[in-house]
Design goal:
heterodimer, A: 116 residues, mainly beta, seven-stranded mixed sheet, 52% strand, globular, B: 110 residues
Chain lengths: 116, 110
């Protein structure tokens, strides 16, 4: 397994502001993803974070709203821009480890955002 | 697209009862299948997995068998404990990412 550190773990934000979430992994990874878990809901894939290039976004998510960076193999950031109360969610960083078998993903503890 | 459907919760059981949480999938081919668990206030953890048909994944007394005939991956445990209270998510591999079911909340009472 791996230690996946996300910061901040939680935050309360004002409408219209932006917040950047960081994800740092202590092991070699091949893939990094960002998921959203809205209150009482399942996990929805936002995007695949690609090293050194633009992220690949899922339907319904756009770069202007959720800009993502991945400057190296083990670090990525997700920004939630111009926030509204509907963005109140847990945002999770997820990784596929190098050498992993079976395709499982490992998850960070999540960043719980509340937008007022 | 590929998707999973799991039974609605919440499920409430008495300690030592038998647990089944149903999960069925729709996919092209035979993707790897997973069960994840989210304990209260904690992150998502891999519980077990199966990578091909007829594989049985097991961990912590939980089991699930990959059945291609019924496109199912039901989670079972013979005797649940209070500490098993959590939300359980069925997932399948789609590309390199995972698609998750809606989750089933389990509450085990003493």
């Amino acid at each position: 397994s791996a230690v996946i550190s996300q910061k901040p773990s939680r935050d309360i934000c004002q409408r219209g502001t932006s917040l950047t979430i960081q994800c740092q992994v202590d092991s070699q990874v091949t893939m990094m993803f960002w998921y959203r878990q809205q209150p009482g809901q399942s996990l929805t894939l936002i995007a695949t974070a690609n090293q050194g290039s633009e992220a690949t976004y899922e339907s319904g998510f756009v770069i202007d709203k959720f800009p993502i960076s991945r400057p190296n193999l083990t670090f990525s950031t997700l920004t939630v821009s111009n926030m509204s109360p509907e963005d109140s969610s847990i945002y999770l960083c997820s990784v596929k480890l190098a050498g992993g078998q079976g395709g499982e993903l490992f998850f960070g503890e999540g960043s719980r955002l509340t937008v007022l | 697209g590929d998707s999973v459907t799991q039974m609605e919760g919440p499920v409430t059981l008495s300690e030592e009862a038998f647990l089944t949480i149903n999960c069925t999938y729709t996919a092209t081919g035979y993707p790897s299948l997973f069960w994840y668990v989210q304990y209260p206030g904690e992150g998502l953890q891999l519980l077990l997995k199966a990578t091909k048909a007829d594989d049985k994944g097991s961990n912590k007394g939980f089991e699930a068998t990959y059945r291609k005939e019924t496109t199912s991956f039901h989670l079972e445990k013979g005797s649940v404990q209070v500490s098993d209270s959590a939300v359980y998510f069925c997932a399948l591999r789609s590309g390199y990412a995972l698609n998750f079911g809606k989750g089933t909340s389990l509450l085990v009472t003493p």
